[in-house]
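=== Structure Prediction Worksheet ===
Name of assembly: unnamed complex
Input type: mixed (protein and possibly other molecules)
Chain count: two
Listed entries:
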Amino acid sequence: MSISEEQVRHVAMLARLGLSDDQISSLGQELNSILGHIDQIQKLDLEGVETTAHPMEVVNSMRADVIRPGLSREDALLNAPEREDGAFLIPRIVGGDDAS
Amino acid sequence: MSIDLSKLSVRTIRDGLASKTWSAREITQASLDRIAATDESLHAFNQVTPELALAAADAVDARVAEIEAAGGDLAAELPPLAGVPTAFKDNMNLRGTRTTCSSKILSNYESVYDCTAVRRMLDAGAVPLGKCNMDEFAFGSSTENSATGPSHNPWDLDRVPGGSSGGSAVAVSSAQAVLSLGSDTGGSIRQPGALTGTVALKPTYGRVSRYGCVAFGSSLDQIGPFARNVEDAAHALKAMSGQDPMDATSMSNPVPDYAAAVRAAKVDGMKGLRVGIVRDMLDMDGLDGRIKRRTEEVVGIFAMLGAEVGEVDLPTSQHALSAYYIIGPAEASSNLARFDGVRYGVRATEAEDVMDLYLRSRAEGFGPESIRRIMLGTYALSAGYYDAYYGQAQRARTLIIREFAEAFENYDILVTPTSPEPAFKIGEKSADPLTMYLNDIFTIPVNLAGNCAMNVPMGMVKGLPVGVQLIANHFSEETLLGAAAILETEIGFDTTPPRAQ
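=== Predicted Assembly ===
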């Protein structure tokens, strides 16, 4: 499989990466080179083989449902680029003339 | 008194404290002095923490005084890592330090809690020297992908130390530190271990808690030690192992006394140990012929020492690199979604709206290899490609796990080279990502299967250290470390580079 420039732009948007045209172009070439190698995996006959997401057979590792101390508000906000009234401050999310 | 750190081990430091030969402060100051004298040319550290180090050393010395005052036995009561100068990869959180992952996007990040493995090392008496350079977010095999610049190999400053835990490898190899911790997702402890001639261990997945280590590939990542001898690595492993309520993937298997297992193995020898050389990996393209021959000689040493030696093939593992470069980036793209300029890290200025803030903070904050991996992972997980890539890789992973399980029915230890070539020149591979990826061809299958494995220095090629990888089954670290210790004694490799002597 090879990846088109349009797909590279689409994936960059999915990944929330605001890339330049130059970056899109060079990434397209690099990803195609890497995918060219990775595509060897398509040769394996894996029909009927179950998937593995995790190397150990651990299911529903639980702990006691007890209250314990967590991060203080001060610590949680220590690295905040901007903060206000004990909360993270971010730019507007909904556009001014956008009804959504 | 002048203290030569290159001659010290966990055991000799502790013995010296018990016999009042030196104080923890003297050992720590010797480490800090050595860092000050050498790190401009090596760049092992992103941050050195003299205040934390000296405070920890003074706490050890206070403990010595306390035990003495109570008429206690220092040799019995001092903690196992008392006074041991230890460095940590810069993806492990420790209060009082920045945790940058060698990335611009986290360049100002102050830790607000402690990584469990780090905390356990410090609780065992280790002294924190600082945070070590790495490939950004652990993406790489050379430590060149660092926003703070490359680390340099103590055996040849023009060469890379390997990666991604390159700084941690350099700190131990150059005797700035006696122990260091790295993290290994596809070889990031073992490969720099091979390139710097250090003992480097990736424990079984789940042996060591991952809590507080910035996640790359959560089903692959594991923290482990660098040391200049096998017994030191065993001491470090014991200190940090065991279940942690903060990491649901950490396992409850009991933690044996690994250093005792090492000493016992040296007495008992290898008789009855079943050792399998992985033949088809040895026949792979791109493996340096001298490393191949040396690996075969090492298996000869095992046979000479009484091990039962045979050959095994791992054909599905030929596809491990492909599976890894789907699963690793897929997990990474998900893990790195949190770096968006909202709660921490570098934020793009004057963003129009929150989408603009995400897009620019991420594009400006991540380096080229991080962007590449995020793109690769996002693509592999995206609609229409998910099953062909991610699904296929997960199925291949199942077969690789089975293949290892079958091999371990017949063998206790599997043997491959750790890296296909010795340390390469800085800049030599940075233009072609795929060439760089091939450096981890022998180490990657082990992460997919979750087994434990380690690098043991096995000699020199072209004046540079090369290493053999020993692999053992899940939670068989005692067997692994025991075999490594016997081999270490037999090979007699001097882990100290000439410039550090």
